[in-house]
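[job 0412] stage=complex_fold ligand=adenosine-5'-diphosphate status=START
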Amino acid sequence: MMSKPRVLAIANQKGGVGKTTTAINLSTALAAVGETVAILDLDPQGNASTGLGVGVSERTGTTYDALVDDVPLSSILKKTSVPRLFVAPAGMELAGADIDLLDDPQRHYRLKRAIDRLAAECPDITYVLIDCPPSLGLLTVGSMTAADAVLIPLQCEFFALEGLSQIMRTIETVRARLNPQLELQGVVLTMYDRRNNLSADVEADVRAHLGDKVYRTAIPRNVRISEAPSHGKPALLYDLKCAGSQAYVQLASEVIGRERAA
Ligand code: ADP
Ligand code: MG
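[job 0412] stage=complex_fold status=DONE, emitting C-alpha cells
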C-alpha cells in the first residue's frame, strides 16, 4: 500500500516555547515505534539540525535550497543517530527566503510541492515534522499550507492565551485561503512546572478554551531536556528515563492515536 506521509507543522510565533525540542523528541519517539520520520528544519537558527548532531559544516544542502531553488528534499536529508530519523538542515540564508520568493505568486505552495515530491521519491517516510521559526511569516504559513495538521507547543506563562488566539487566527486564514484540510493536531503544554500556581492557572484556562484539543500529556520542565542538544542528540537518547523523555514518549502515543483517527 502506498500512502502519503502525515505532515505536522510544529508552530508558535513565540520563540523559546519548545517547538524545536518537541520536533526533535516527538520525532525520536515516533521513530522508536517504527515510523520513518523526516524533520524539516525551517528555522534559520538551525537549532533542530544542531540538536540532531548535524553541524554547520555538514549542511551541504539546506531547506533554503529546497524551497527557493527546487533542490529535492530527498537529496538534502541527513541521517541522524536515531534509526529511521532524518533531518533536512537549515542555514542562515533561510532568513531571506521570504524576500527571495516575493515575486512568486505561488510561494506559499512551494514547500507543499517539495514535500509531495519527497513523498513520491521516498515512500518509506511515514511522518514529516516541520520545525517552524518563531514568526507567522511565509515560512510558517507555507508550512501550514503543506501540513495535514498543526501541533502547537505552549508554555504556561502569563501571555500564553493571547499568543494562542493569534496563531489560531492564522490557522483559520490558512484554512480559508490555502489549505482547507488543515487541522489542529493539538496543543502541548511545555516546560510545565507543577509547583507553580501560574502553570496550573494557565493550564486550566487553556483546557477550558480548547477542551480535548489539549493533550493530556504535559511536558515538565526538566534539566536533562535542556542538556541534550549540546550533546547533539535527542533527550530520548541522552536520558530515556528522565521525566521529560517519558513525557515525549506519552505525547507520541497521543499524537499517533489522533493521526489514526484522522
Ligand atoms: P523554540 O524552538 O520554540 O524556540 P526550544 O525548543 O528551542 O524552543 O526551547 C527553548 C529552550 O528551552 C531551549 O534551551 C531548550 O533546551 C529549553 N527547553 C525546552 N523544553 C524544555 C523542558 N521541557 N525542560 C527544560 N528546558 C526545556
Ligand atoms: Mg526552535
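Residues 163 and 195 are 23 Å apart (CA to CA).
[job 0412] exit 0
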